[in-house]
Amino acid sequence: MTAILVRVPSFQQAQQVSFVGGEGVVRNFKLESGSWTYVIEMALGLEPPFGRIGAETMVLLTEADLWADEAEADYNFLTSPRN
Q1: What is the pLDDT of residues 24-36, one digit of tens each?
Q2: Phi then psi for 44, rounded to 5 degrees?
Q3: What's the CA gap between 10 and 19, in Å, rounded?
């Protein structure tokens, strides 16, 4: 019998995160090839004169590309259930 260990995701849906190039909110995530991939929605800026085209504020990033606000990360650590 083989045991497969999977890490829990570091970020949750609706969590505010930062990355090189901006900030956003986690909208979805899934495990791909042993690492977590996140769909991040960035805040909309002013609408350009030519209008908006689709989901231009969504980016797909790996867990290594993201970090949480320190205050939120401390809160999540203190309130997460312990095993």
Answers
A1: 999 999 999 889 9
A2: -75, 135
A3: 14
